[in-house]
Design a protein that fits this description.
Structural class: alpha/beta
Bound molecules: 5'-O-[(L-methionyl)-sulphamoyl]adenosine
Helix content: 40-55%
Shape: elongated
Strand order of the largest sheet: 3-2-1-12-13-7
Radius of gyration: 26 Å
Strand content: 15-25%
Largest sheet: 6 strands, parallel
Amino acid sequence: MGKPRYITTPLYYVNAKPHLGHAYTTLLADSMKRFSQQQGEDCLMLTGTDEHGEKIAQSAEKSGKSPLEFADGIVKFFELAWEKLGIRPDIFYRTTRESHYKLVQKALQRLKNQDDIYFASYTGKYCLGCERFRTDQEWDEKGLCPDHQTPPEIREESNYFFKMSKYQDRLKDFYKENGSAISPQNYLREAVAMLDSPLEDLCISRPTTRLKWGIPLPFDDKYVTYVWFDALLNYVGGLGYTGGKPTKETTEEKGFKSEFWAEAQHLIGKDILKTHAIYWPTMLMALGLPPFKQLLVNGFWLTSGLKMSKSLGNVVDPITVQERFGSDAFRYFLLRDMSYGHDANFTWESFIQRANADLANGIGNLASRTLTLVHKNLDAKVPSRSGRSEVDKTFLSQLEKIPALYKDHFDNARFHLALAAFSEGVANCDRYINDQKPWSLAKDPDQRDRLVAVLGTAMDALALLSVVSNGVLPEGTCKLRTALGFTDAHFDEKAGWSVIPWALATQYLPEGTQLGETPRLYPRLELPTDPE
Ligand code: MSP
């Protein structure tokens, strides 16, 4: 087994169906997992749903269902969306699973026993959209929540509090010592700035007179657990942690995959930085567990300058996009057009334009014109490599630099630049073919050796490009490899499209190998006439 790795998405609230913003993080997590598996790592991916709290209770009430019935209905849309998009999470975590209740209660009891939880009355400004109290500085100049544009609700009640302030100094040290614990760097600075002033303790309960839909506190049944305290524990619960006391530094009771926890990378949106960068690591410290390895923070997908969100009614449904345009095009666009950490605008025009330029006219057209010529002129077989010229060799050796470049970008969360390197490779290959003009060579029997050399070189280039982009274009690259004559790429109901090992990028097929059928990889897409 390779090196362990653990990639998580946030757990999505089940107050509404998934939208493009949720699809983005989940597709990215899946592509990162595929990329990690390509490198031979043993990677687990977790996603799931966050099902307690006031937002869900309210939505359920409006629909006349019990919260659990309501959640069950919405969860199906998430599962369906991920399945259709070719995402195969190893762990689909619902916070309503029984083991999660036990974990949350055991963890709370331990914190209470070690005097990290106390009872007090409190008045604060609550944002229901965020499901958290915001400090006085966290409202915009109009006094509204910057993420939801809603006014605060003043809440005064007696509650239980977690002594978050006790861990402030340790958390500061953690960020000081781990400069890549949050990426991109501006979010690390933002998190560190939150630690400049004294931290307030965290309210971790809600009275059942206000909210019943939650995990009861083990030491006071008149209260349920605050939804964020409950939900964050999923990341360790998904690896089998049950809330017990760690024996040594990182080991937990039997069954906790602590070697994966040591490699945990959480993908989150910028709106949930505080809960992940401040609440979560202090909770872990209190429980005696090491903090995560890294938070990877993305910006928002916007439509006409506004965050895409169900409450604003400007969402794009990922299931519809997949059904109309295929999941490769969607994945590619999302990863290519968002410069990681920054906001990006979604328009149908930019989606169609990107898919057509880089996929239909890019890799799709390159594959189709090369393979058609090989079928027609070389008996659909991989030709000899012996007669290649300096031009051919130089071109291929330049192209062979792409895997390392792509990997460096991908490893450092520059996903858009990794894909830019890939499409640059496609463009170079197009240029090579345009210069060498194999269609003219094919007409002249004296140029047979040149034809063999050029088409063979182009096929090797396609093989390399298919490995490099396999994590982001799983469907197309597998079809392309089969067309090139490889037998390592196929679809498996359980595992999805094959993951092609990275080391195969420069392992080309032996002379004489029979090619497969030439598929139409990426048809040109048309702008929808009735966009949602
Ligand atoms: N339930 C919490 C997370 C708990 S994790 C233990 C939550 N859920 S959410 O459904 O509201 O949001 C989940 C993720 O989707 C967040 O990372 C959020 O940033 C992301 N997105 C929601 N809308 C988005 C866009 N328009 N664009 C990009 N991502 C956005 O928060």
